[in-house]
Amino acid sequence: MIIKVCRPFWTYDVQKTEDWLASMAEKGFALIRLNRLTRYFYFEQGEPKAVTYQIVFDKVPNQSLSKGLSNFGWTKVLQSGKWVVTMNRLPLEQIRTFPDREGIVKHNKKIMYIFMGILIYLMVAFLNVILISAIAMSVSEFGHFNVFNGPYGFIPATALGLSVILCIFTVYSLITLNKTNKRLTGEFIQPNKKNGQGTSFLKDRLSKNEEKRLKSSGQLVMKWKLGWMYAPDRLEAWLEEMEEKGYNLYRVGKTGTAFYFKKGKPRKIC
User: Fold this and answer.
1) Which pick of 44, 139, 206, 239 has the fewest CB atoms within 10 Å?
2) Of 202, 210, 198, 215, which Cα lies nearest the Cα of 258?
């Protein structure tokens, strides 16, 4: 049996949508199709499964996921335009890498710019209406002016009502999208369903004095990689080689060309 569910504003909060898709899978409804225009999700009834969903937005969507994501259990469920839904059957606490969220953040920012333009336009329009009404009242013979009177009074009343609704929707969209972007850019904590806690990926961040001390002792090493963006595949291979030698990547400098490594145990990392 195939069912469809409409979620008009599912892109406003992709994390909430992912949780909803996971709950549908637990009930035995597997996602098979998405129509981004009608906002309908299509599910096929089957066996209940515990899975993790992750939604991404890619300007140039690929037919398949990267090797790194595939190695960690991620599979591509479907693609609708530039929206891609991925799934992982591993327990959440065992997943060590997740698809990138940068595409969604940039997409939301563009929509926010559009809504801000609409909001500014509405505010200017409201001010113009107030100004024109004030001028009309000042020149009116009876000292008052009402555009809602007369046989065509419903036209300005309807326009005013639609403008207010659009203004409320615009403000709601800006607030919601801004909150979503903050949550997406703050995904430094990997949740653990068993104990409800998380592990911060920034918990080992050192202070400046501690970094200086480790540098002087040789435990923190800095390497330059100028122009690596012209060959990112070589950078990935180099980072993996450094990890195998026991140089664990700690952080990247603000310019993006200085890489800091801690001396530790050799690791096999993608």
Assistant:
1) 139
2) 215
